[in-house]
Specification:
By secondary structure, the chain is an alpha+beta fold. The protein contains 14 helices and 18 strands. The chain folds into four domains: 43 residues, MutS, DNA mismatch repair protein, domain I (3-Layer(aba) Sandwich); 161 residues, no CATH class; 126 residues, DNA polymerase, Y-family, little finger domain (Dna Ligase, domain 1); 98 residues, no CATH class. The strands form six sheets. A six-stranded antiparallel β-barrel has the order 13-14-15-16-17-18. Strands 7-10-8-9 form a four-stranded antiparallel β-sheet, covered by helices on one side. It has a two-stranded antiparallel ribbon with strand order 1-2. Strand 5, helix 5 and strand 6 form a beta-alpha-beta unit.
């Protein structure tokens, strides 16, 4: 049962209760009047919605456009009872040799999965909603442009109206949809509100009813439905390459390249498996994209066999053409080769484990770069811009400077010896200083970072010890006899 308008109502019943005439939508009081010893439990709407979302995902085997009904079963349970699923099968029915075979296949799969379903198919969402819930058949197909006649005898609850409007209609004896046909439109609005007229027009197809899909629908979509289920990796590879070729052809027509692709396999047992890949640059090379998918194809579990495979380009970018040389061959520049390497590494190690440094407007070394996912930032040899003078920086820069003990001949001079990790390093050569002042004008902005923010001027030195190892060290602040400045190790040169 679930809380609802007018008290608690029955959300679902078992077979025994159904045999006794207890139906979903009954108030708890009415149900107990009919069957005093009825056992009730509070409905778990959260888990029900999770299961419904999962079912909606599995329905993508029929169409990429699926959505969970935001109204539930409407009036009977105050929008909180058993919900439904919208599926836009426009242009998809031919894959099943017609609408009726498609509906029958969906109905049978729901039974196999343990769901009792009711299905409606119509030109409009409102008509399909009404047919699914108020037809006397488990699945109902409303003929094209036949909503007015086919649904006329349905109760007014099939219009998805507010309970207060329904109560008003009931009190006036307006119990069927055909009762509303003869009422002038102006009177319908003035007496029962604009929602009544809108719902009627939506059902009849006189005004549009926008419904947003649960997942964004791409224009670049391909699918294969097999006559016999497949399970061998070789067959999956062949199907994958065929889908990629189709997707890449579609992208080429739109002058686009794929940045994110999603492969979904639908198994015989109504389960599904999903693989995702990303690229660091827009690509429509089926060989490269197939290679990225093959890195993780081993994770696919075909079970008793795969019936449908769907491939979607979920994110695309404008495609940048490559230069062709005099021999008619494409010059694969370094940027493209690096991008392909990043794609493969990301597929093996994870998208978030491969990062790229991007410049940040700061002359403090620890703030001068930012880390971004390598797949989320485009590859470009010209992306690193800065002044004409580029000071030398260590190959390895420490995430956070480490304190060291230093001996210097003069207070403001370079170190001649420093101790780090209890090991003494005698300096044979030193260059510097490179003076870096604190960025006082944006202390608040930088303080949000994980490093401690310095407020002192730094003097950096490149030093080399007697073993030939080179270090980047700095003095934090100016020399003061009362309180000598601290020294830090910040990086290592090759």
């Amino acid at each position: 049962m679930t809380a609802s308008y007018g008290g608690q109502r029955i959300a679902a019943v078992n077979a025994a209760a159904n045999m006794q005439g207890i139906k979903p939508g009954f108030s708890l009081a009415d149900a107990r009047a009919k069957l005093p010893n009825i056992a009730v439990e509070q409905a778990n709407l959260t888990d029900d919605l999770k299961a419904l979302n999962k079912l909606a995902e599995s329905c993508k085997r029929y169409s990429p456009w699926t959505a969970v009904d935001p109204l539930g079963d409407g009036i009977l349970t105050n929008m909180n009872g058993s919900k439904g699923i919208w599926i836009n099968v426009t242009g998809c029915a031919h894959l099943y040799k017609g609408e009726r075979p498609l509906i029958k296949d969906l109905y049978n799969r729901c039974i196999q999965a343990g769901y009792e379903s009711r299905i409606g198919l119509a030109d409009t969402a409102g008509a399909a909603w009404a047919a699914a819930r108020f037809s006397n058949m488990p699945f109902c197909i409303i003929p094209p442009r036949g909503q007015r006649e086919s649904l006329s005898s349905y109760p007014v609850t099939a219009l998805r109206l507010d309970p207060k409007i329904l109560e008003k209609l009931e009190n006036l004896g307006l119990r069927h949809i055909y009762d509303l046909y003869e009422i002038p439109r102006a009177s319908l609005v003035s007496r029962f509100g604009k929602q009544t007229l809108d719902r009627l027009d939506q059902m009849l197809g006189q005004i549009d009813e926008p419904i947003s899909p649960r997942w964004s629908v791409s224009d670049h979509y391909a699918r294969i439905m097999f006559a016999e289920p497949i399970a061998q990796i070789e067959d999956i590879n062949l199907a994958l390459y065929k889908l990629l070729t189709e997707i890449c052809s579609s992208l080429k027509t739109s002058n686009l390249g794929a940045r994110r692709l999603e492969l979904t396999t639908f198994q015989v047992d109504n389960s599904f498996t999903r693989l995702k890949i990303g690229t660091s640059y827009a690509s429509r090379d089926p060989d490269h994209l197939a290679r990225l998918f093959r890195e993780n194809l081993h994770s696919l579990n075909p079970g008793f066999g795969i019936e449908v495979i769907v491939l979607v380009a979920t994110e695309t970018n404008t495609f940048t053409a490559c230069q062709i040389n005099s021999g008619g061959k494409i010059n694969h520049n370094a940027d493209e080769n690096v991008a392909k390497l990043i794609d493969r590494l990301s597929g093996r190690l994870g998208i978030n484990n491969i990062v790229r440094l991007q410049p940040f407007e700061s002359h403090l070394p620890e703030y001068a770069t930012q880390k971004f996912s390598a797949l989320k930032t485009p590859v470009s040899s010209n992306s690193w811009k800065g002044p004409n003078y580029h000071p030398q920086r260590p190959v390895r820069l420490l995430h956070q400077p480490l304190p060291i003990d230093v001996i210097a001949l003069i207070p403001d001079g370079p170190p001649i010896t420093f101790i780090w990790h209890k090991q003494q390093h005698k300096i044979s050569h030193a260059e510097g200083p490179e003076r870096i002042s604190p960025e006082w004008w944006r202390l608040t902005q930088l303080q949000t970072r994980s490093y401690p923010l310095t407020k002192k001027t730094r003097d950096y030195y490149q030093v080399e010890d007697q073993n030939g190892q080179r270090y980047w060290v700095y003095r934090d602040g100016f020399f003061c006899p009362e309180k000598p400045p601290s020294w830090y190790l910040h990086g290592f040169f090759a």
